[in-house]
Amino acid sequence: LAETGEAAWLRYAPIKDPHALKQYASLPQTAVSLDHSLIASSAEKELTRGIQSMLARTLREVPKLPNENAFVLGTVTDLRSRFSELQSGQVTGDGFWLKTVHHRGHAYTVIAGADESGILYGTFALLSRVAQLQDVSNLDDRETPAEPIRWVDQWDNLNGSIERGYAGRSIFFDNGHVRADLTRVNEYARLLASVGINGCNVNNVNAAPDVLSDASLKELARIADAFRPWGVRMALSVNIASPQTVDKLDTFDPLDPRVQAWWSSKADEIYRLIPDFAGFTVKADSEGQLGPSSYGRTPADAANVLARALKAHGGVVLYRAFVYNHHLDWRDPKADRARAAYDIFHPLDGKFDDNVVLQIKHGPIDFQAREPVSPLLGGLEHTNEAMEVQITQEYTGQQRHLCFLIPMWKEVLDFDLHAKPAPTPVKDILAGKVFQRPLGGIVGVANVGLDANWLEHPLAMANLYGFGRLAWDPDLSPQTIAEEWTRLTFGNDPLVVQTITAMQLASWHIYESYTGPLGAGTMTDIIGVHYGPGIESSERNGWGQWHRADHDGIGMDRTVATGTGYIGQYHEPVAAMYESLASCPDNLLLFMHHVSYTYKLHSGKTVIQHIYDSHYEGAEAAAHLITQWKTLQGRVDDERYKDVLQRLIYQAGHAIVWRDAICEWFLKTSGIPDEKGRAGHH
Ligand code: GCU
Fold first, then answer.
1. If DSSP codes are grouped into helix, strand and coil, which group holds residue 108?
2. Do the strands 140-143 and 96-103 form a parallel or antiparallel pair, or are they unpaired?
3. Is residue 188 part of a domain?
4. I want to staple 315 with a disulfide (CB 3.0 to 4.6 A). Which of 279, 455, 506, 581 is the partner?
């Protein structure tokens, strides 16, 4: 199993390095769990499995604290009464404390959790350190996750297909039912837990109403059972019209008492089957989904009815702010999809119950390779927020192109929206620290499938790994995350670690540079598959992903002065920075402004020359990825070496297709030649 993709970053490859083996020789031979929960028992089994696999040593699991060196698992509260070293020092949330304590002449490697999940997370953290050959002989390490909500969403349909999934069919569903064999589901939950993810919404946000039928719920409970040992709570996407579609009520008006009673009894039924059910995700009044607007009600009206049904059971509602009109009038220069989330949800601030969380996409459009940070993230003071990012690479190469997204998410998390005079980076808003919110977090749309590599491209799994790591600790650097992932996935050979890390860190910029310039959006087919160049497909339709490129210029004027006014949704000084051409960063210029092709960037280049140059540079850099990867032949196993090589060759070819499509189109449209004489000469 160690070499296969399924193990992902939990390969626990046998350690052969003699120095490391010597260092670990003194690790205990015995383990005890003083906590008897299901999750703690997973932790103990995982510890045994990892040590066995990496150090070829079988841990003796004993029931009581032994009179010899041992790994000791338990909650901080329980372990405090035994070990004075744990008296002072707090761990909260799902946090953990790894500590070497000396007690009656023995050395105990203590894995103490703030709760049961903390024990499991601490165990995975310890094993990860061993896999990375770090010293674990004298531990004193306390970690607390930044945010309570660390979820992944799957857009799986009950028929087994996955919306925007690029790695095979659903691990959960087939042919209208939950799969008989849930082995992969159990393995998925284990992977998620290993990076601290504590929730998973298993069905498409474009939710089939029958998910909530009595028969479906019984089947879905089996998924929750498979998640439970790993502390991953199951959530479901629900269709707001369910009372009508599932049970033939003549209405789904959230303010109708019969509708409220329906949701409440549905919630009771769910919790009878799934006592640790996490909650509902809601996509309503969006892209054809029905919603409260059918009855003139607000998203708050709808969210609160669901929230009240779940409240007594400890469930939450993640109400998605991805609500916009996809029949916009493209001729109207004031129409702007980017405004929608803020325009709709900002006025409702303070109207949502405390167990509602607004799930807000990180950018105002839709997971483009470059977008500004959603102003709504800084526009709510009395509402819980979770930020949604996309691990599945819908607009970023669909796992056929390498695109490591951690640097993008990290930029967003660190971005100061100036929601208050003191710094208010997005990560602090999500953690609830800025406005003292009880809940908050981050949700990643993962869409893993039955493919052996979960996400198809072996290097794409760094995005899932990194998502969990950032959700746990948004202060980690992309470099650290890429290095950790590479060590765990490909081993500790320094050349391998250095090369793959460098490739990952460069990849987003490379992808961006051959697909869409200066914040204009990914110039892809907008209507259908969202893959490959499709420069004109975004124009002259109601979807609102416009770049407005014509003979003279390009870009959406979103200024307050002459444009759609979108920039006015930001606080100062962010608004002023974007409003003025002098201070608007080049990489978002065309998102914020409409300029002529001869407009000079801060870089000194004209817009048109930048378009040519960046696409040529990007395609070259994509080809260079192949050269870099080739230095690893013989240093990574053959199977993965060849698999990745093939994909990189394809990517480099497709980057040329992108380059030429975009450069030719702009040459033809602008009539301005490439100074370097390349465009148009292929
Ligand atoms: C994108 C995606 C859809 C998805 C939607 C959403 O538009 O293409 O498939 O349903 O986002 O997030 O709801």
1. strand
2. antiparallel
3. yes
4. 279
Report the chain's terminal Cα–Cα distance, integer Å: 47
- For residues 537 and 655, give the distance between their C-alpha atoms in angstroms, rounded to a whole number: 19
Distance CA 400, CA 556 (A): 29
On the question of a cis peptide bond just before residue 573, with omega within 30 degrees of 0, the verdict is yes
pLDDT of residue 682: 65
Q: What is the pLDDT of residue 450?
A: 97
Residues 213, 316: one domain?
A: yes
CB distance 322 to ligand 1 below 6 Å = yes
Looking at the structure, tell me whether residues 465 and 320 fall in a common domain.
yes
Same domain as 35, residue 168: no
Quick check: is 412 in a domain? yes
Q: CATH number, domain at 79?
A: 3.30.379.10
205 lines ligand 1 (CB under 6 A): yes
Active-site option among 156, 353, 371, 394? 394
Known catalytic residue at 394: yes
ipTM of the predicted assembly exceeds 0.95: yes
Give the whole-angstrom CA distance, residue 478 versus residue 499: 15
> What is the residue with the minimal CA distance to atom 8 of ligand 1?
164
Q: Which atom of ligand 1 is found nearest the CA of 286?
A: 13
- Point out the domain boundary residue: 442, 476, 510: 476
Roughly what angle, to the nearest 10 degrees, separates helices 461-472 and 406-414? 20
Active-site position among 140, 268, 287, 550? 287
* CA distance readout (Å), 635 to 14, 479, 587, 632: 15, 21, 37, 5
Based on the residue annotation, tell me whether 475 is a catalytic residue of this protein.
Answer: no
Residues of the chain with pLDDT under 50: 1-2
225 is catalytic: no
Nearest ligand 1 atom to alpha carbon 361: 12
163 lines ligand 1 (CB under 6 A): yes
pLDDT reported for residue 88: 86
Secondary structure letter of residue 244 according to DSSP = H
CB-based contact 25:101 (threshold 8 Å): no
The domain of 365 spans: 149-476
Which of 438, 459, 476 corresponds to the end of one domain? 476
Instruction: Determine whether the shortest distance from the Cβ of 153 to ligand 1 is under 6 A.
Output: no
C-beta of residue 351 within 8 angstroms of C-beta of residue 367: no
Q: Are residues 277 and 215 in the same domain?
A: yes
Q: Degrees (nearest 5) of the Cα angle 101, 107, 108?
A: 60
Residue 579 exposure: Cα atoms within 13 Å on the Cβ side: 17
pLDDT digits 0-9 by tens, 132-165: 999 999 999 999 999 999 999 999 999 999 999 9
pLDDT at 4: 66
